[in-house]
Amino acid sequence: MIRKVAISTVVKKVGSHPIISANGFISRDLFEVCDKNSNFYMIGSMGLASSIGLGVALKNTKKKIFVFDGDGNILMNIGSLITIGITKPKNLVHVIFDNSSHESTGGQPTATNKIQLSKIAKSVNYKVFQVKTKNQLVKILQKIKLIPGPIMIIIKIEKGGVISKRINIEPTKIKNRFMDSLTK
Amino acid sequence: MKELTQKQIFDYLFNNGIENFIGVPDSTMKYFIDQGFKKNKILITTKEEESIGIAVGMSLSQSNSLVFMQNAGFANSLSTITSLIQLYQIPIIFLIGWRGFLKNDAPEHTKIGKIQPKLLQALSLQSKIINEKNWKASCDWALKLIKEKKPCTLILKRDFLD
What is the number of structural domains in chain B? Predict the structure, then answer.
């Protein structure tokens, strides 16, 4: 499964819940697959999608908050897992699209095929699920509906696919429409 | 800054709409943070950028935040300030401890202490140095900017040695 297919599969189950998506190809794919006011495209500040997601989750306990993260992104802000682990947001679903590479910058390797991110996440109070196929992903997305968070879904994806277009919405507009969506 | 003043600053900001106090501790503002803990309003993170990220999430949810840190952490956060806070125009109050303000502060603080005013200027991040006399007016200034949806910085000088 390539990233765009994985993103499209998760998006179908997210519905109108907010998504905070990491910079690079993840946000670009999400923008192309399903642009919505409730998507917060983080176009800079690599690593911080998980932290922004935590802030949103702690203040919107009636909504389920999805973070669309990459392996490079979460490795850059691995400390955020600890803060999520101590604040234990029940409504946070942290999805890692893991291709063990910095695909947005040319496919350089990350360390996720040499370490076990799942064990790190488990040790800081996440409930962790790992999937490789689309079928497994659909099942897990159904299953987590009944499980309190913080939840991490690690989706092992393959590199490749057509590069999605850049996000052509002004950052302040991304912010304003996202804020509006939270009030609904 | 005196213990009592630091506590008053916390209470004043808290009573005037700042709901979240997130950061990495600095001894310069120890009593400010202590007061926040007493009110159960402090969240300590592993790094300053993480604090900023969480504060952004809360700000997007219409809940005002202050992010506290030492100036070493401010230096860590430059890219986050330019590519998140300023790019999206997120209103957050930074409270930064000015290490290296005294010339004989510990050596690791000398350089950053010296360039801190220039860094703030280069970022065009509005700032005020708070002291025993102007703290209330400075807090009012910061609260006003937050209402105008602008980020700003309050600077606390490290005026003692240990």
Answer: 1
Mean pLDDT split into 10-residue runs, chain A, 184 residues: 96 95 96 97 96 98 97 97 98 97 92 96 98 97 95 95 94 98 95
In a domain, B162, yes or no: no
- Structural domains of chain A, with CATH: 3-182 (3.40.50.970)
Q: Is B59 part of any domain?
A: yes
Task: State the DSSP string of B94-130.
Answer: EEEEETT-STTS-GGGHHHHHHHHHHHHHHT--EEEE
Cβ separation B79–A45 shorter than 8 A: yes
The pTM is what? 0.97
For helices A134-143 and A3-14, angle between their N-to-C axes, nearest 10 degrees: 30
From A2, A10, A11, A16, select the one nearest A178 (Cα to Cα).
A16
- Per-residue DSSP letter, A14: H
B101: containing domain:
3-157
Task: Give me the interface pTM, i.e. the ipTM.
Answer: 0.97
> What is the tens place of the pLDDT at every residue in B79-105?
999 999 999 999 999 999 999 998 888
B153, part of any domain: yes
Ramachandran angles phi, psi of A9, nearest 5°? -65, -45
Q: Give the residue among A134, A161, A172 at the shortest CA–CA distance from A28.
A: A161
Q: Which residues of A touch B (CB under 8 A)?
A: 20, 40, 42-45, 47-60, 77, 79-80, 82-83, 87, 171-172, 174-175, 178-179, 182-183
